Structures are given as structure tokens and as C-alpha cells.
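ok posting inputs for the malonyl-coenzyme A job
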Amino acid sequence: MNNHNLFAALRAAFPADLEQVAIDTADAPPGQIFTPLRYTWGDLERGTAMLANLIDSLALPPDSRIAVQVDKSVEALMLYLAVLRAGHVYLPLNTAYQAGEVEYFIGNAEPAMVVCAGRNFGWVSRIAFLAGTQQVFTLDDDRSGTLLDRAAFQGTTHEPAPRRAGDLAAIVYTSGTTGRSKGAMLTHGNLLSNARALHDFWAWQRGDVLVHALPIFHVHGLFVACHGALLNASRMIWFARFDPRAVVQRLGEATVFMGVPTMYVRMLAEAGLTRQACGHMRLFISGSAPLLIETFRRWQERTGHTILERYGMSETVMLTSNPYRPESARRGGTVGTPLPGVGVRVHDEKGHALQAGEIGGIEVKGPNVFKGYWRMPEKTADEFTTDLWFKTGDVGRIEADGFVTIVGRSKDLIISGGYNVYPAEIESCINELPGVAESAVVGVPHPDLGEVGVAVVVARPGTALDGAQLAAALKSRIAHFKVPKRVFVAAELPRNAMGKVQKNLLREQHKDLFA
Ligand code: MLC
Ligand code: AMP
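and the output
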């Protein structure tokens, strides 16, 4: 039997000369003096083997979930690869998540092992042990922590665990429009088929160097960017934090950059962003949120490069992409055509196929589409059509020549700087605050983050509420990026004759708030 372990495929692509540099670090943790570190392919090979051997030595049950909430570091990337190598299931968590959020993920996924930042060990380990987790380690971005201490005693060779294409490789939580987050189960086959499709479609080539400045707890930074570079044996210039000036300064040595639109907006504000600074660049890729046509055009004017926009989601990895060649065929405002092997169609609410150019729900099919939501068979069934196409919740149209344009979303979702914020989750959190009768959260345009949340809150009779205090209270409960950037107190929420809150009126009312 062939081993379909994704790690084995990535490892097979390593260069013959393992002493070549695989990753150059480009920044230091806050407060530390920056000493550039160089990791060779041999370091990745040995480091992932040691971590995989440590995981093996713990004798975890098969298909154990290993939940990881750590700051970005090369060792954190090695941990991801080691989990694949050992044949378990990687569960990345945004570092912004607070105790209530982490408690939910750990309770739901029941990981056998949790790795957290040293500063969070107290509260994370309490949550984990209560949920039945056997092993909790720490890993910090200065290469310290109990995980590496323990791995240091392990052997430096390791045979990747045999996996089938349909075996789970990762669970990525995505918030739900109603209720709590759902864990999207991605298989080795999902991730490898997509990585290979992108490798070919974006014409990864010898000598490519990727500037990696995305977080590695979401699919964009972890799968699209890392798999791309690893599968091509390409060096990565590794930023633990996105700093537009520092990134622009390193573009001269690179050929590929991937970012969310906010990153492009911020780099455009840098005087150092010139044609010369991008002289060696081959490809700028944008995704995770809509790229404004204005950003697309300004980037062309300033750098001479046309950003290639693509579209995907946690449940499906990448779905569509603008063409690589010719560059002039990339169309701003569109997300390109379906990737080879991926089916994309547009249906109306009754499930009828729509004609080219007609707007409806985007549905997708392919080897990249996830296996379902973790322990939620009913929710999984709801999100697939009877002929097994996945309903993305995005609304768009497909032109006769296959180009897809996303015009909106049927899911009530705000995408802020590439992070998803579900109004239902924020509203229920606001409604639990003392004195709150009800609330509504809507997305409004924002020049930097694309879109941000704004809340309108109604007080219980006889209670006085203050918007700033409500926002501060939310910050102690949920990830800060989810906290509405403004909170208004109103006498009532606008409702239609059916009693439904008219969010469109609130969006209209506040649309120029950040103009
Ligand atoms: C940070 N903040 C945000 C925010 N990012 N608020 C709203 N939306 C965001 N995206 C808030 C913080 O909570 C903090 O608030 C303050 O801004 C400063 O935080 P920071 O950490 O210094 O932020 P910064 O470094 O400026 O981060 C901006 C960013 C980051 C654009 C670099 O948001 C980012 O890395 N975005 C990429 C997300 C991503 O990878 N998405 C891919 C998902 S996968 P306070 O109150 O504490 O001061 C996917 C599928 C696909 O969507 O197709 O790819
Ligand atoms: P996530 O659940 O974090 O994976 O986010 C997936 C969602 O991001 C998709 O369903 C889209 O709504 C959105 N998205 C991703 N890429 C793009 C893009 N290029 N343009 C518009 N929306 C996008």
C-alpha cells in the first residue's frame, strides 16, 4: 500500500542537499534582540523526526487530536509537520482566542495532547486536564518550553506513519452562523491534492523564495503558503509578525508573496514599495477576503505587478484562482476560474442551476472538499446538496468563460482583515452582559481591514449602558479581533413587519463610520 501521509509527500520534495537553507527568520519575538536564524532542510527533517518520536513515545490513541495554540515560530511549523508524520490530527488555534473560546474547542475536539504558550500554561492546562487531555506541553517562540525539552532526547530519524488519503490530517474550526464553531475535518488527500493543484497552477519553479508573513493557525498561512514552499523545496523568509515596512524590505530577495488584502493596503502605505523593491518578484497572491479593485490597480501602478486573487475556505482549501499566465488575463474583482479537478456551480435557493452571469449560491465539489464537520453529522448533511456538492454560503456568478465573481454571502459573516467574525456569536456574547436586552452586529466598510464589526445594543428598561464599557467587557471574554470596533447604544433595533431585525438598515446607517 502506498503511504498517503501528507508529510511523506512533502518530505519527498525536499532537495537532495539537505544542508541548503529552508527557512530564514526575519524578525524576533517582542523585546528580544533579533538574531537571524537559518534552518536547513536537514533541520526540518531531524526536528520533525524528534517531535514525531516524542509523540509516538506518548502512545496516544490512533487519530488523536493535537491542539496547538502557540505563537508563530519555525518550531511551531515543525510541530505541525511532526503531527502529520506521527499520523495524528493537527488542530490549530488562533493565539487571540481566550479561555472561553479555547474551552469550547478543547471540550469539543477532546484532544489527547495540547501544546500552548508558556504564559498560558496555567489556564490552558486546567481546561485541558478537565476535558480529559493526557498531555499538555508548552512551546514558546524563543525555542523554549517543555515540548522541545522533551523532544531533545528523541532520535533524529522517523518513518512517517502509514495513512490513507481519506484519513484525517487536521481539524480547522470555523465559526457557525448559528451556534458554536464547527471543526472542518480535512484529510491527507484533501490537503495534498490541493497543494499539488496549486503547485502546478501557480507554476512554482526552481529558485522560488516565499515571504511568509501570515499566521500559521489558518489555512492560508499553514496550508496554502507552507505546503506551496515545502512542495517546491523553496526557501521561506519567515516573519513571525506582519510588519509592512520589514516585509517590503525583504521582497528584493523573494519571488512569491501571499497575503490578505489588508497586508497589501498596508504595504501600499510604505514609501519603500517601488518597482525596484519588487524587481525579483514573480507572483503576488491575495485571498481570504475580497481585494478591492482600487488596491488591485494601485498595486499595478506602484509595482508593475498584477495581484493574482484566489478564493477558498477552511472547508475546501483553495477553489478558484486567477490565471498565472498571461498576467494580463488576471481580472480584478474576480476570483478567477475553478482550479483543475474542482467543480464550481451556482444554484438558486430552490437548487436549480443558474445560467452564466446569474447570481446565486456557490456550490463546490472536488478532492479538496472536506470530509465533514467533526461530530456534527446533521450540520454536515445540511451543508451538502443531495448530489453532494458543498454549499459555500458565498453568493456569486460564473461568466460564460468560467470566471467567478463573489458578490456577497448568504451566511451572516464579517471578514475583517482576513479573520472571520460571526455576528451571531458576538451578539450572544453581548446579550450575556449585564443590562443588555438585545443587540445586533453588522459589518461596515473599513479602509484598512476591509470590513469591521459595529454593534448596536439596546439596554434593559431602567439600565444605562455605555458603548465603550461594553466593548471593554467583551475584550475580557472573546478574541480582540472579534470585538466590534464601535458599540452604539440605541432605544430599539429596526425591525420589519415579521419582527426580524433589519440589519441592512443598520449597515446603511453606519456605512460611512470609517470612511
Ligand atoms: C488585528 N486586530 C484586528 C485584526 N487583526 N481586528 C479586526 N480584524 C483583524 N483582522 C486587532 C487586534 O485584536 C488588536 O486589538 C489590534 O488590532 C492590533 O493587533 P495586532 O496583532 O498588532 O494586529 P496586526 O498585526 O496589525 O494584524 C493585522 C493583520 C492580521 C492583518 C496582520 O489581522 C492578520 O494576520 N490577518 C490575516 C488573517 C489570516 O491569515 N486569514 C486567513 C484565514 S484562512 P486590541 O484591541 O487588542 O488593540 C481563509 C481561507 C482563505 O480565510 O481563503 O484563505
Ligand atoms: P474561512 O472560513 O476563514 O476559511 O473563510 C472562508 C471565506 O472567506 C469564504 O467563504 C469567502 O467568504 C471568503 N473568501 C476567501 N477568499 C476570498 C476572496 N478572494 N474574495 C472574497 N471572499 C473570499
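notes: The chain has three domains: 6-27+38-241, 308-409, 414-510. Residues 41-57 form the longest helix (17 residues).
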